[in-house]
Write a structure and sequence with these properties.
This protein is an alpha+beta fold. Helices cover 17% and strands 27% of the residues. It has one domain. Strands 2-1-5-4-3 form a five-stranded antiparallel sheet, with helices on one face.
């Protein structure tokens, strides 16, 4: 069975959560695009390195009000 990355993304302002089969940087971007911009077509999401709202921190990633921890910080 393939080892897939599951990422829980949390909205810090209202507590909404979403789970994605994506690494954390892409998961926060997907949550931001889907929930805040109402863009449900993942094929049109910008690349993480071109999205100015995407920020990387020591323990995770943030995009808008959405955050996700890096897997190694959860142990």
């Amino acid at each position: 069975m393939e080892n897939r990355t599951k990422t829980v993304v949390i909205n810090l302002m209202d507590g909404r959560t979403s789970i994605y089969d994506l690494p954390p940087d892409r998961a926060v971007m997907a949550a931001f695009e889907e929930q805040d911009n109402l863009d449900l077509d993942s094929q049109t999401f910008p690349s993480p390195d071109t999205l100015s709202n995407l920020k990387e921190y020591r323990r995770g990633f943030a995009c808008g009000d959405w955050v996700a921890y890096k897997p190694d910080t959860l142990q």
